[in-house]
Each structure stands twice: as C-alpha cells, then as structure tokens.
Amino acid sequence: MRRCLLPLLLVMALSLSGLLVVGRTVAMRAPRGPALQPTTPRAVSTLSRSDVNGDCAIDLLDLALVSASYHAPYPFPHAQADINGDGAIDLLDLVLVAMNYGWRCPRSNILVAPSCSRFDPPRNDDPYLAEECVCLQNVDGPAADLSGWHVRDEQGNRYEFPPFGLPGGAYVRLHTGIGINTGTDLYWGRDSEVWDNSGDTVFVYDDEWQLVERYSYRSGYPPPVPTSTPAATPLPTRPQTPTPPMATPTPSAAPAHVVIRYVFYDGVVPRVESDEYAGIMNQGGGTVNLAGWRLNAGDPGQDFTFPSFGLLPGRSCRVYTNEVHPETGGFNFRSGHAIWNNDRDCGDLFDASGAPQSHYCY
Predict the structure, then answer these.
(1) Kind of pairing between the strands at 171-175 and 185-187
(2) Do 93 and 115 share a domain, yes or no?
(3) 58 and 118, same domain (yes or no)
(4) Is the peptide bond before 34 cis (omega within 30 degrees of 0)?
(5) Is 193 helix (H, G, I), strand (E, B) or coil?
(6) Would you call 92 exposed, middle or buried from its count of C-beta atoms within 10 A (0-12, 13-18, 19+)?
(7) Does the reported pTM lie above 0.85?
(8) Is residue 55 part of a domain?
(9) Which of the chain's termini has less CB crowding within 10 Å, N or C?
(10) Residue 337: which CATH number?
(11) Sign of the four-CA dihedral 38, 214, 156, 74
C-alpha cells in the first residue's frame, strides 16, 4: 500500500506546482502566524515536524491535516501543519510531508513512566505547580545524555533539557513549577499548568528534534495509587488445629502500574501479519501476577487473557497475533489474520477484576 501511496503523493505535489506562484501571493496577503525561533535548525526539525498528529508515523493522515489547513489564516486549524515554521501553511509544507512519507519513530530507551508522573495533582494546579510533573525513565542500557532534548504537550509548550545525564534504570521528574534542579528532579519554571487534567499527550524529542517517545493519557489513567497499605491480619495467639501448609502467595495484581507501551502493528509476514505484537511493561516497583488480566485489541472479541505470569518491575512481555516467542512470554492471540489496524487503532488492558489499567492509541 505504501508503494502505491508514495507515487500518488508525488503526483499530487507536481499537480499543485502550478499553484505555487498564486499560492505564495495568497499566503503573503493572509495573516501569517509567528515563525519558529531560530534555536532549532529547520533542516533537522522538519522530519519529525512532518508527523503533524504526533502518532510516530508520517502517513496520509498527516498530509490530510496539512491540506485541511492549506492557506488558512492564522491561527491555523492545525498549528503543527506549519512544517517548516515560516508562519504560513503552503505547498512547501505539503512537499515536506510527501518527502518524509513512511517515516516512523526510532526505538528509544527513554520512556514516560506514568507511575511516578503527576498530571493532575490533588491540590489546585496553579498554586502548587511544582507538584505537577512528568516522569521519564531510562528503561534499559547505559546512561543517556539528555542535554538539549525537548518535552512538549499538545498545545506546543516546550521545555529544553539543560546538560543532564540519566543512568540506566533511573528516573527524572520534570516539574512544571519553580525549584532547584537535582539529579532526579528538574523544574520547568512556569507560572501556569502544562498538562491538561482531562487528557494530554507527552512528546519527547532528542537534541536533533527527532521524536523518540509519545505517551497519551486521559482522566483516570493510570488508576490512583492507594496512600496506605491495608493492615495485616493479626496472628493467632495460641496453637490452632493443624492445617495443610499454605501455598506461597502470588504477587498481588493491585496496585499495579502495568501498561501497554508499544504496538508493532504493521507486520512483515504477508497477508496474515502473525508477527504483530503488543508490548506490555511493568512500570511499578513490585512483581505483578497477570493471571486473569485481559488485553483487548480494539474490537469486541479481540481479547487475550493472561495465564499466571509474574511480570517483574521494569520488565516487558509481548502478546503476538499468532507467533510463539518464549523469550518474551510465549503469548499470542491465536488469530489467523491481522488484528491491529495499520492506519490507527487502540488497545486496552484490564486487570483480573475488569478494572482498566492502560489505554494506548497510535
């Protein structure tokens, strides 16, 4: 399908070339938006900026969003459609999307950790902005140099990292308000909130403005962590009637911070795409037994129910469409056809009680 679309995009760009002179004249007369500040080289930033909707893929939807804003006066219907940041949405922005068509996010060890993020602090946001934060984790590998990296939200608010290194397995919290930077906490220095309480998206870019992480949330995800631990049942004070020895308790499923971290939705196996998979990660501090947990692939009946399986903190497993890989858990839907839509889809993860634990869209 991609091989057919790319020539089509090029033909569309060529067919629009006759409008170049007229288009630029109209754009000059229309109210223009502010151009990007020259702190980011355009030659580097236009690749990831061509991902207009921020779904880690440059595809037909991005072209449609630029087309919908074509020659629109400022403020633009889709602000991110100004790919080259020149204050106008014109033919050049369309061409940039066509040139970068088919790009996808590179894999990264730096991921958003919902378990230690606070997008909606319990107290009013503005007076307590230091409590609002997004947390990043270096989930694997050596220390990562985050100097010059960027974080932004859906509204375009941007933060640039100072010289900073994040060791493997470590976390760093980026607080919205004012404070003193340390090795575990950084402060944005803003006087108003960033993260929308009802839902938002965290975009993480490296020092060349390549998108390396995207995490979306909505109100209620992940579930709140209890502030206290239930008291243990008192032990009997005298001997009781002998009973058979009790089995070693399995790890508790709640509170849990197990999330869908990635979906490989465009398999390479012809027709059936049996090599599709969803990556499930434990971002909490303790082992979680996934027995009875359910992964839904977007449609009724597209469900996988986990057997008893202890997922260690910081570790991942995969649920394939129809392949068995023991090194990642050995789980699959046993589906004879592809189940993840190549254009866009959502997955949901529920614990053994049926409570939602993670929602992931691409």
Answers:
(1) parallel
(2) no
(3) no
(4) no
(5) coil
(6) middle
(7) no
(8) yes
(9) N
(10) 2.60.40.1260
(11) positive
The pair of three-digit structure tokens given for residue 298, joined into one six-digit string: 């977007």
Residues 153, 145: contact at Cβ < 8 Å?
no
Q: Are residues 152 and 214 in the same domain?
A: yes
Per the structure, the count of domains in the chain is 3
**Among the three residues 41, 72, 99, which one is the final residue of a domain in this structure?**
99
* DSSP state string for 125-173: TGGGGGG-EEEEEE-SSS-EE-TT-EEE-TT--EEE--S-EE-TT-EEE
Strand order in the sheet with 110-112: 110-112, 133-138, 171-175, 185-187
Would residue 16 count as lying in a domain?
A: yes
**Residue in 141, 135, 63 with CA at minimum distance from that of residue 102:** 63
Instruction: Provide the domain limits for residue 304.
Output: 258-361
| 306 and 207, same domain (yes or no) | no
* Residue 98 φ then ψ, to 5°: -60, -40
Asked if residue 206 is part of any domain, the answer here is: yes
How far apart are alpha carbons 217 and 231 in whole angstroms? Answer: 32
Sequence-separated (6 or more) residues with CB below 8 Å from residue 184: 170, 171, 172, 173
Of the residues 99, 119, 135, the one at which a domain ends: 99
Rounded to an integer, what distance in angstroms lies between the CA atom of residue 289 and that of residue 306? 9
**CA-CA-CA-CA torsion sign (311, 315, 320, 324):** negative
Locate the DSSP E strands across 139-292: 144-145, 150-152, 158-160, 165-166, 171-175, 185-187, 199-205, 211-218, 258-264, 277-282, 288-289
Q: What is the dihedral of CA 241, 245, 248, 252, to 10 degrees?
A: -30
Element (H, E) at 237: none
Q: Are residues 285 and 344 in the same domain?
A: yes
pLDDT given at position 11: 38
Q: Is residue 236 part of a domain?
A: no
Q: CA separation (Å) from 319 to 237, 274, 297?
A: 47, 11, 10
**Amino acid 2: pLDDT:** 43
Q: How far apart (Å, rounded) are the C-alpha atoms in residues 276 and 283?
A: 22
Spans in the chain with pLDDT lower than 50: 1-4, 7, 11, 14-15, 17-30, 36-45, 221-241, 243-254
